[in-house]
Amino acid sequence: MTVSDSDPYVNGGQATESWSLLLDDGDIYVCQDGPREAPALLLIHGSASSTRSWDRFVPLLSGSHRVIRLDLLGHGRSGKPADRSYAIPDQARRAGVVLDRLGVEHAVVVGHSSGGAVATALAEERPDLVTALVLINTGPSLDAFIAPDSAAAGPTQWPPTDEQLRRLASTGFSRAGYQAPEELLDEVRAMTHHTCTTTMRATRSYLEQRALPDRLRVLGKPLLVIFGEDDRRWRSSSAYDYRAVPGAQVELLPGLGHSPVLEDPPRTAGPLLAFTAIHAVRVD
Question: Which domain, by its residues, includes 187?
Answer without folding.
Answer: 2-279
